[in-house]
From TrEMBL:
It is found in: Cell inner membrane. Signal peptide: none annotated. It comes from the Bacteria. Its main location: membrane. This is Type II secretion system protein F. Belongs to the GSP F family. It is a multi-pass membrane protein. The keyword Lipid metabolism does not apply. Residues 17-138, 217-336 form the Type II secretion system protein GspF domain. The keyword NADP does not apply. It comes from candidate division TA06 bacterium ADurb.Bin131. Keywords: Cell inner membrane, Cell membrane, Membrane, Transmembrane, Transmembrane helix. GO terms for cellular component: plasma membrane. The chain crosses the membrane at residues 114-136, 156-183, 320-349.
Length: 350
């Protein structure tokens, strides 16, 4: 998702909820924002809230004040505030935004959980491997000369290589990772789409990524339309916020299609990124005149599917990684015993 740094964090959710309370209770907004800023833990968000209070105090509208900080507030957020301010429904729309930000906060936490959990287990495996190399290889080197040359396992040769050249190996890994992340910024759009298509086809994990993007797109679009923002503008803003290159590309094309006076559902089925049930539900909802309700239903449906796939993924990946770590320990232990026996025999018969 095209989420700015710190957006949809716990502090941001708290800020949205308190801002709604300020407007609903008709409390003075400027002093309210200044006191609210003191309760925010993140200094950058607290500083922005104080600046917004200063802008409003100087006569600027809420929309103008928030628009000065595009690095924190995305276009979707600003567009909804503008619609609410111009229609006189700002408290209601901010209430929707508060609920929306809370849902997105939970979604992002779950995505991080899916990404961090296997990474922690993988790092644990790497640390265990390093511990084995550092503590086992020196002992092996002490009696390697007693082993018959043809009886030295290739695995030990590899461990000795890592032990003797670990700095070079570490530098090589850092360079490869650095080049990969630098190259990502220069990948053409077609390549980005190809990589995303590949990632969406991955077992289990691909569904998690796809369902998260579909949920964000549907919810963002529904929120914008419910705020009386035109469909072309809503499509233009919902595409980037989905976090999917394919959905963003499709949204651009559909926005041009709709701007030409045509129904966007006429070409929605042409994009494989949207499941058939997704496109069909939107098509039927548009014909019935309750498009927003259909989009909210889809967002909730894919939120549920996202949660289900996360549970499946975690329960599937945990035993596999633990098994791999166990196999690594078992292999090293078996080879160590074999090497020890070979070393003893080599000493006895030398």
């Amino acid at each position: 998702m095209n989420v700015k740094k710190g957006l949809f964090s716990d502090d941001f959710v708290f800020f949205n909820q308190q801002l709604v309370n300020l407007l609903k209770t008709n409390l003075p907004i400027v002093p309210g924002l200044r006191h609210l800023a003191k309760d925010i833990k993140k200094k950058n968000l607290s500083s922005v809230i104080n600046s917004i209070a200063t802008d409003i105090e100087s006569g600027k509208t809420i929309t103008e004040s928030f628009s000065r900080y595009p690095d924190l507030f995305p276009s979707v957020y600003i567009a909804m505030i503008k619609a609410g301010e111009s229609s006189g429904r700002l408290p209601e729309i901010l209430q929707d935004l508060a609920i929306y930000s809370e849902k997105m906060n939970k979604l992002q936490k779950k995505i991080k959980e899916v990404m961090i959990y296997p990474a922690i287990l993988l790092v644990a495996g790497i640390i265990l491997g390093c511990f084995i190399v550092v503590n086992f290889v020196p002992s092996f080197l002490e009696f390697r000369d007693f082993l018959p040359s043809g009886r030295i396992p290739k695995f030990f040769t590899f461990l000795v290589f890592l032990y003797n050249h670990w700095i070079k190996v570490l530098v090589a890994i850092i360079l490869v990772v650095g080049v990969f992340f630098i190259a990502k910024h220069f990948i053409k759009r077609k390549m980005s789409i190809s990589l995303e298509k590949f990632s969406f086809r991955l077992p289990l994990y691909g569904k998690i990524l796809r369902y998260a993007s579909l949920s964000r797109f549907a919810r963002n679009l529904a929120m914008l339309l419910s705020s009386h923002i035109s469909l072309p503008d809503a499509l233009c803003m919902s595409g980037p916020s989905s976090g999917s290159v394919q959905i963003n590309s499709a949204s651009d094309e559909m926005q041009r299609w709709v701007s030409g006076g045509k129904r966007w559902t006429d070409i929605l089925f042409n994009y494989p990124i949207f499941p058939h049930i997704f496109a069909w539900t939107i098509s039927v909802s548009e014909k019935k005149g309750d498009l927003e309700e259909g989009l909210f239903y889809l967002a909730d449906f894919y939120d549920h599917e996202f949660d289900r796939q996360i549970d499946i993924f975690i329960h599937f990946i945990e035993p596999i990684i633990i098994l791999c770590i166990g196999l690594l320990v078992a292999v090293v232990a078996i080879l160590a015993v074999r090497a020890g026996i070979s070393g003893i025999l080599g000493v006895m018969y030398s």
